[in-house]
Amino acid sequence: MWQNLLKDIQSGNTKSLARAITLIENEISGYELFMQMMAYDTSARIIGITGPPGVGKSTLTDALIGALLATERKVAVLCVDPSSPFHNGALLGDRIRMSQWYTHKNVFIRSLATRGHMGGLHPKTYEITDVLKAAGFTDIIIETVGVGQNEIDIATIAATTIVVLAPEIGDSIQYMKAGLMEIAHVFVVNKSDMPGAEQCINNLQQMLRQLMHNNVWEVPIIATVATQNKGIEAMLQAIETHTALTLKPEYNVVMLANKAYSLLQEKCMKRFNYSALKAMLVTEMLKPEFNLYKWINELDMS
User: Fold this and answer.
1) CB 142 within 8 A of CB 121
2) How far apart are CA 227 and CA 230, in angstroms?
3) Where are the domains of the chain?
4) N or C: which end of the chain has fewer CB within 10 A?
């Protein structure tokens, strides 16, 4: 089944692609062997779009799809929505803003829920992007959930990360204090026709001068109004310029190491079952000499 599925995906069968993603999401038996059939591929460009809620990430993604298609690219989009803490479901509503691309032959859009995974991504994002590469997409856009200061996993998978802000989000410095500043390859101030846009850009420029003076890449700040398609060409040009840097072998090694480390972490954690750990601790914690750190250190990791 899996071998035929891969052949169908490589031949451009969209239904087979969607089915494969569902099987991987649900960890159906055999999916790991399926992933081992994938050829190592660095030809596809992965673009991450992240930022606080309400800044217009989906509208910006919609505009970027159009700009990429105008250059005869083939675009896949993964839209990640947060899962409900009560029933683990998600609205998966980002595609509403991208409805004009539903039937386009060179566009594939898939909504994913985080399924409780921290970091702003779906837990199988690595695997799904590899399947999209096998399908022949030249650009894969990953739009994360509305992130806070620490949900920055997108930086481990996207070659180019776009951090989107808007004047209306309040004190933008609060969003920059932790990881978001460090992961941005391009800053976009969307809704730049609103009051406070100039101040937001000035704040970013001041922080970048303090933090980025030793970097090889000078992070650009692009003002956009995504609903009017303003600034989209400048944003695409910034992506293209940064892509030239990511083609260097040393950059690919860093990205591959990030990916391997994350996949190894996931594999190691599968050895531990929460219910089993809880049952073990019920008796262990009653022992007078019990120490959690010692107990963890002595656990069988094999």
Assistant:
1) yes
2) 8
3) 1-37, 38-265
4) C
